[in-house]
């Protein structure tokens, strides 16, 4: 079930990110990349979120590389490249699916974890807010 949740997150993230990036692609890869990064730095709020996501992404990539080495997961650099060229919010959930499969192969009887009732409620509320934000962003 957890793999399906990660897959859904990756799918929604792909739609949300690429729904916004398509407007850049008509000027070519280099032009789109330059304009995209220029526009992420237009005001303090966009600079804040850009720096925040870049360093969160770096921390997650370090963790993912170490976790891949620990579990013997091959192809970690494909996920890193996917994070850079597609979206980190797409690549990491896909890596987490790979990780869960490796963990279940190594320890078939181990559970992914246990959520309390309040965890489930919190995750549902967070998901609704984020999906709503994504929908509003795509409509602009």
Give a short summary of the structure.
This protein has helices spanning 2-21, 29-39, 44-71, 76-106, 117-139. The protein is mostly helical. The radius of gyration is 17 Å and the shape is globular.
Topology:
Blueprint: H1 2-21, H2 29-39, H3 44-71, H4 76-106, H5 117-139
Helix pairs in contact: 1-4, 1-5, 3-4
Describe the structure.
The chain has 140 residues and is mainly α. It has helices spanning 2-21, 29-39, 44-71, 76-106, 117-139. It is globular and about 50 Å long. Helix 1 runs parallel beside helix 5. The longest helix has 31 residues, at 76-106. It has one domain.
- Our Rg estimate from Cα atoms comes to 17 Å
Q: What percent strand?
A: under 5%
Give me the oligomer status: single chain
- The residue-averaged pLDDT reads 88
Count of distinct strands = 0
Number of DSSP helices? Answer: 5
Total domain modules = 1
Largest sheet, in brief, is:
none
Key attributes of the depicted protein:
140 residues; mainly alpha; 5 helices; 81% helix; globular
């Amino acid at each position: 079930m957890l793999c399906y949740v990660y897959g859904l997150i990756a799918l929604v993230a792909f739609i949300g990110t690429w729904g916004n990036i398509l407007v850049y692609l008509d000027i070519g890869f280099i032009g789109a990349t330059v304009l995209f990064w220029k526009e992420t730095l237009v005001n303090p709020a966009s600079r804040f979120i850009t720096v925040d996501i870049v360093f969160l992404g770096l921390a997650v990539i370090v963790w993912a590389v170490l976790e891949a080495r620990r579990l013997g997961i091959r192809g970690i650099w494909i996920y890193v490249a996917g994070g850079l060229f597609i979206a980190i919010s797409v690549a990491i959930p896909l890596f987490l699916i790979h990780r869960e499969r490796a963990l279940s192969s190594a320890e078939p009887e181990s559970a992914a974890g246990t959520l309390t009732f309040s965890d489930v409620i919190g995750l549902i509320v967070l998901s609704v807010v984020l999906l709503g934000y994504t929908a509003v962003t795509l409509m602009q």
